[in-house]
Design a protein that fits this description.
It is a single chain. 78% of the residues lie in helices and 0% in strands. It is mainly α and 321 residues long. Helix 3 crosses helix 4 and helix 3 crosses helix 6. The termini are far apart. The relative contact order is 0.15.
């Protein structure tokens, strides 16, 4: 609504698209490709910490396919997580490790975004909106730290699970198994997951690289429309937009990210027309192009899966014949 009320000031947006700088677009595509590779390497480091390494190519294809599901379906994050879990299982990753890795990837990605947003708040301190976010950012960092501790020692949630089971038994008389028994089984299963703090910090570094390179794509988008980058509030606006993308309003934050990011950039000195143009270029690269590539990966993995199952069925028939 804010942008629609300023149509006169935004009338130059079309003009900004009339002289797109192709080299900057290529740099933006490269930055986004490296961003996705960083995400895949984060998952790979986590699986390696659980002694279930996968090849970088497989990790990248799974990451791209999962990203497409996450950003194009209602309740996309749940579908994306389940998809990654199934693809890890198909590659002989144990169930408990696959589940832990999916959760750990989500936690570390959120922690990386929290760190980046904190830097943005610090960079924008002295302005009213930034001061209002100091408490929220500090709280987010604390929560991210606690979640990383759970990722490092997943068995510490066993008492919480036992308490939840006891409460369920008291209220609904389900499940029939005792809470202490559930906690014991959980501790036994997650005992195979023993990541080191060094490994987790390296994975967090890849998570930070994932966000930083995605941000670099946005910077390249400003270069593509030959507009100055509003550095003063860039990180803050970017962090807020990525948080908005996680709200269950539209798949992938479609429309929400474009609006919140543009408003944030304009609020911190970006020109209205050029900011809109830059954000649209950024979203074409980081959202729409990745959707096309990701769904291609989904299709490719489905074909490979069918061929593998057909081959296994044929081999089983030969054995039983």
């Amino acid at each position: 609504m804010v942008l629609l009320g300023r149509k006169g000031e935004l009338s130059g947006t079309a003009a900004s698209f009339s002289h797109i700088e192709a080299p900057w677009v290529v740099l933006g595509v490269g930055a986004e490709a490296l961003s996705m590779m960083s995400f895949a390497l984060m998952a790979g480091r986590l699986l390696g910490e659980a002694r279930s390494p996968l090849k970088a190519r497989s990790l990248l294809v799974i990451a791209l396919a999962s990203n497409a599901l996450t950003n194009s379906l209602p309740a996309g994050p749940a579908f994306g997580a389940a998809y990654s879990f199934r693809r890890y299982q198909e590659r002989s990753v144990p169930d408990i490790v696959a589940g832990w890795a999916v959760v750990a990837v989500t936690v570390l990605a959120a922690a990386g975004l929290a760190v980046l947003a904190s830097v943005g708040v610090m960079a924008a301190l002295g302005q009213g909106t930034a001061l209002d976010l100091v408490g929220v950012t500090a709280g987010t960092l604390v929560v991210a730290g606690l979640l990383m501790a759970v990722v490092r020692e997943p068995q510490i949630v066993a008492p919480l699970v036992a308490g939840a089971v006891r409460l369920s038994r008291a209220l609904f008389r389900r499940p029939r198994v005792d809470g202490h028994e559930v906690a014991r089984r959980l501790r036994e299963r997650v005992s195979v997951v023993t990541p080191s703090w060094i490994g987790l910090w390296i994975a967090l570094g890849w998570a930070l690289a994932n966000w930083a390179l995605d941000l670099a794509c946005l910077v390249c988008a400003f270069g593509a429309v030959d507009a100055p980058v509003p550095w003063r509030g860039l990180l803050l606006a970017y962090g807020a937009a990525q948080l908005a993308a996680n709200l269950p309003i539209t798949p992938g934050g479609l429309g929400v990210v474009e609006g919140s990011l543009t408003i944030g950039l304009v609020a911190y000195g970006g020109a209205e027309a050029s900011s809109v143009a830059a954000v649209l270029v950024y979203r074409v690269i980081s959202f729409w192009a990745l959707l096309i590539v990701g769904w291609s990966c989904v299709g490719g993995l489905a074909v490979v899966g069918r061929r593998r199952r057909a081959r296994e069925a044929a081999e089983l028939e030969e054995v039983t014949a």
